[in-house]
Amino acid sequence: RKRVVVFISGGGSNMVALADACAAPDFPAEIVAVISDKPTAGGLAKAAERGIATHVFERRAYGSKGEHEAAILAALAALSPDIICLAGYMRLLSADFIRPYEGRILNIHPSLLPLFPGLHTHQRALDAGMMVAGCTVHFVTEGMDEGPIVAQSVVPVLPGDTSDSLAARVLTVEHRSYAQALRLFADGTLRMGADGRVARTGFAGDAAAS
Ligand code: GAR
User: Fold this and answer.
1) Which end of the chain has fewer CB atoms within 10 angstroms, the N or the C?
2) What is the ipTM of this complex?
3) How many CB atoms lie within 10 A of CB 142?
4) Distance separating the N- and C-terminal Cα atoms of the chain
5) What separation in Å is there between the alpha carbon of 88 and the centre of ligand 1?
6) What is the pTM of this model?
7) Is 109 known to be catalytic?
8) Ligand 1 centre from 46 Cα, in Å?
C-alpha cells in the first residue's frame, strides 16, 4: 500500500473521505500522517480519532516561507510518503518544496479548473452566472491550481444558491472524486506524464496496442 501524507488547514472533510476510502481492505493506499499549518484545524481531531498521527507546522513559528517549508520537508523525509494529498491546505507550495515530490502531489480544488483558480471560487461561479459547478483533482505543479487534471465532478447550480449552499453541494462530490483519484494514482492506473498531462496505463486497450 502506498504511503500517503495529507495536508490540511481546516475542517478536514476531504481528509476524512480519503481515510474512509483507505479503510477498505483492497484500497491501494494508507494515510500515515496528517500535517496542518493551523493548530486550530478541525481535521486534526478527526485524524487523531482515526488513529492517524498529526503534525502541526504553524507558519508564524518560522522566520520565512523557506524555513517553514524546510521544517515540513524534514518531517516528510522521516515519513517517506509515496504520495502527498493536499486537502484544503491553504498555502502555495514553492518549486523547491514540490521538486522532490514532483508528480506525486495531488490537490483538490473546488471549481472546474481552469475556471476559477484561487479563492472565493463559489461566489465567482455564481457571479459569472454558471449553471454548473464542481471540483477538480489535479497534480500539483508550481503554478497555482495549474497542474494536469486527474478527475472532475460536476453539480448543478440551483436557483437561490448562495456561496455556502453551492460549496456544500460541491463538497459532497469532492469526497468521492478525491477518493477515486487517489485510488487510480496509487494503483498505477494514471500518473503525471513528462508532457505535463495525465498518462493513463493499465487499460486493456493499451496492452492490445503495444
Ligand atoms: C474544500 O472545498 C477544498 O476543495 C478547498 O477547501 C475545502 C476544504 O474542506 N480547497 C481549496 O480551496 C484549495 N485552494 P475540508 O477541509 O473539509 O476538506
Assistant:
1) C
2) 0.99
3) 15
4) 28
5) 3
6) 0.95
7) yes
8) 15
